Amino acid sequence: MSRVSLEGRVAVVTGAARGVGELMARKLSARGVRVALVGLEPDELKQVSARLHSDSDHWHADVTDHEAMARVAAEIKERFGKVDIVVANAGVATGGPFVDSDPDAWRRVIEVNLIGSAVTARAFLPALLETRGYLLQIASLAALTPAPMMSAYCASKSGVEAYAHSLRGEVGHRGVKVGVGYLSWTDTDMVRGADRDDVMRELRQRLPWPSNKTYPLGPAVDRLVEGVERRAAHVYGQWWLRGMQGVRGYLPAVIGTVGQREMRRFGDRLDGLRVGLVGAGGAADEQRRTGATTVGK
To answer: Is 153 assigned a catalytic role?
Structure first.
């Protein structure tokens, strides 16, 4: 698929304070894109904006807040004159056995990852329709296969994948392209936060190869940016994820068997295990909602 020049385009990146969002902003900026950064960490967003090569600005907003995101979309349109690209990247994660999970944290993962993505699209679709633009929805390997101890995250990413595919069918005839970006375990605050729990780290390391590795951030984001340039329907942050599409129907049974074996092996270590919202993004979300910083994240 041929690539389009990104020079002079305007991109919105949510969850842009760090990790995938920050590096996406930097790499898009290096290609001449003017970038609007959206997230929950205003100081970090300001610092990211200051380091970009092109014109940029930042907005503090919760992607689950319809009114806030509508206001941000209007302000970005006024500031830059248009919106060509939206990268719906904001996300949080939690882990641990479902039976012992914190109901509020479990629900929040769904709210941010799925509802927040839909709120983002709803806010910016009018502008994208004007420019016949491109929406890249960041999903995950978790959309392709379930994983034990990650019920909320898998549910949210499966949901966001299906939502984005549905949206593609609705807006394609009006010139707007919708892509889904898939990432395996990538070296971000979210993954490092989950790895601080011994059980979660060991369980992930015992997953079948190549899903048991942590992959560097740079090459994964390079692939995402290339997907933006191609206005691609599917973008794979790691090369092997494309092959998972062909076998995804078999994966629940395989992962279920592996999961049962590993749950028996961990035994009593699972009792009462609760992993709250992980990583700096999770801490920022907790601070936004409750005024209290997530402990140990």
So the answer is: yes
Sign of CA dihedral 268, 198, 277, 76: negative
Residue partners of 139: CB distance under 8 A and separation at least 6: 157, 160, 161, 164, 180, 181, 182, 183
Dist. CA 57–CA 38, nearest whole Å: 9
Q: Are 237 and 182 in contact (CB under 8 A)?
A: yes
Closest CA to 12 of 4, 2, 231, 29: 29
Tens of pLDDT along 196-214?
777 777 777 777 788 888 9
Distance CA 81, CA 105 (A): 37
d(CA 14, CA 59): 9
| pTM confidence score | 0.91
Q: Find the catalytic residue in 134, 153, 182, 215.
A: 153
The list of the chain residues with pLDDT below 50 reads: 292-297
Q: What would you report as the CA-atom Rg of the chain, rounded to the nearest whole angstrom? A: 18
